[in-house]
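Quick start: what a row looks like.
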Amino acid sequence: MTNGTLQRIQITAWFALLVTAGAPALRAQTYTVLYNFGSVSCDPMFPSGAGIIAQGHDGQFYSTTPGGGCYSNGAAFKMSPAGTMSLLHSFSNPAGDSNSPFSGLTLGTNGNFWGTSQGSSFNAGNIFYITPTGTFTPLYNFCAQPNCTDGGEPLAPPVQGIDGAFYGMTPVKGNVTICTVGYSGCGVIYRITAAGAYEVLYTFDNTNGANPQGPLVLGTDGNFYGTTRYGGSVNGVFNGNGVFFRITPSGQYTPLYTFCSMANCLDGGQPTSGLVQGKDGNFYGTTTCCGTHLYSNYFGGTIFKMTPAGQITVLYNFCSQPNCADGGNALAGLIQGTDGNFYGTAQTGGANGNGTVFQITPEGVYTVLHSFDFTDGNAPQGPLTQGTNGVLYGETNDGGTGPCINTRCGVFFSIDMGLPAYVAPVTWYGQEGSTVEILGNGLTGTTAVSFNGTPATFQVRSPTYLTATVPAGATLGLIKVTAPHGSLSSRMPFRVLPHISGFSPASGAVGTLVTINGTGLTQTTAVHFGNSVAATFTVVSDIEITATVPSGAKTGRITVKTKSGTATSSQTFTLTP
């Protein structure tokens, strides 16, 4: 096998290690090393940290590494599904773009990718975006405020909210008078616009969480959810093993669960990864600590399910098998595949002690898909991603067969499970009349696009990308694309956000019938006048509902809730005697 060229290791396994008794039979799967990092000059090296891999409009995969590049300060790159690597940007402190981009990248609605760099002793990192062709724009440098109250040294990329702004976290800085043991500050949650306007939404205080390392996830309710690695209290007593929390776009922060709340920390602790919201509305993730099984004197960690209200269920304890053959110490989070199962990586354990790729069902049936043997990768730290072709892709921190000295520099790999191809809207929400960007494969020649069965106008931009307009009357449901090679559906329902354009009359007493106009009103579930109790209402059409002012109503804005979201009027309804 030669170095510096595309190298493939294909392992076809008709029988994977079934870790849980009664596990269902798997499809055949093929593991392939697509690229050995460090193979040529200026190559990316050592994929680490959050390491988010994002698919672009062109069907290629984009991410960052904290090592390598032409200045040894890290790199941004793109990788084709066949394993052709293209260097996009080399990070360099003298160039003012900071260094050590552990984050990976997330795709924004304009086709650009957003990420962060951790920085060094000379700086505290930054937030940036980069185009698919490599044009790099730094937007905000951390520690720009006195005492670094704006946060610093981010490890994960920001994610886009419904308002178009981007939201993220830093693991340190903020309030530097606390979290001083091994850290300088507890970290912050921030918001930044595409134009670079930055604000801190919340400063962690140890009691309610500290030192988040993963990204936020946008929930279907329009709020953000996440975890902190440390901090947290149980019944007023400091715990320190991390929290699960919710934060609204306006900055209202609510800790929902403190890890290690159970005796002997059987629920796991110290989560470092991001979360994924499953099709059932619950959140799924991993912890690096605790649980029920030891491995090399350390607990292997857990896989958990968390309701949006903060009720936890432990689905699996890592290192349940002798010699931790099932893997342990999962730094990465999970993804949900098109088959409804979850997929992830464990950094240690496995048949060779180099980590694993695994599958777990929503019910907790766990299966090892691949055990790394160092030559095909070692110690994966970042999450997998599923391409719209159905194939899973990921990276390892080191290992492989590249020419790097000692540890090697890691690999970019794929696992083909034969999972169904699908289409992926860049955003899974939008109002009627808005344009939705949709990723896929083989889209040339598409004949129809629909939103939960309602036909939409569309334009094919390339074989891997099209745009569609959310049609009038569309409701909560899957996007379906009819392409030449078959019908493709989205993995999760698209939410048609309601909108209130106006109402009449503008004032009235209890019992007044008010006509409310807008869009996306077909699936209305509740109407409120101010902060009143729910009003009785009638859906007249997608653009009109009528509601009766209830007893106890107050002067205030009218709020309409639907199955897809919530709309609030810009005008105030005035309650009269």
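That is the whole record. The two ends are 85 Å apart (CA to CA). Confidence is low (pLDDT under 50) at residues 1-24.
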